[in-house]
Specification:
Helix 3 links the parallel strand 3 and strand 4. The chain has one domain: Rossmann fold (3-Layer(aba) Sandwich). The chain has a 4-stranded parallel beta sheet, sandwiched between helices. It is α/β, with parallel strands linked by helices and about 180 residues long. It is about 40% helix and about 15% strand.
Amino acid sequence: MAANEAHYTLPPVTFTDSRPHLLIVRAPYYKDIADNLLTGARGAIAAAGATCDVVDVPGALEIPTAIRLAGNSDKYDGFVALGCVIRGETSHYDTVCNDSSRGLTLLGLKGYCIGNGILTVENRTQAEVRAEASGQNKGGGAADAALHLIALSRKFTKPTGGIGFRPSSENILIAGDEPGKDIA
């Protein structure tokens, strides 16, 4: 059983450049569980020195769409998806779990830095244990994942400073050179 396993967690991310700003997209279908996930996510974001906004959507299926809509702006460095899907009596559970996860994965492959904190569980007790900020803290884990991806994105997109060509406006003439004259 996974609860008895030891898990390795990456150390928290620190940012030496600008503080990241995240959007938490929460589906409060099970409000008490969503509130606990939010508490954990906010704690992890604050601990990293980052800031966040929160928006609610009706359910887990709407989370990827909300992230995509917010991604049209340059306001957010990353996103945290929070919600809970508890298995019921029909196959709707599978649809919601698979499609919300697929939507987030596709956005991630497009470069969005997303931490997935949508719980997919068999019963309410499992959800409560995973959502508790002082327990398994899956909301904080999702925020940490987004923060790690933001740091990685910044590492890979950081200006290299000196590789490539300079714009012609930055070319410097050396004493004795004439503008427009070819060097032989």
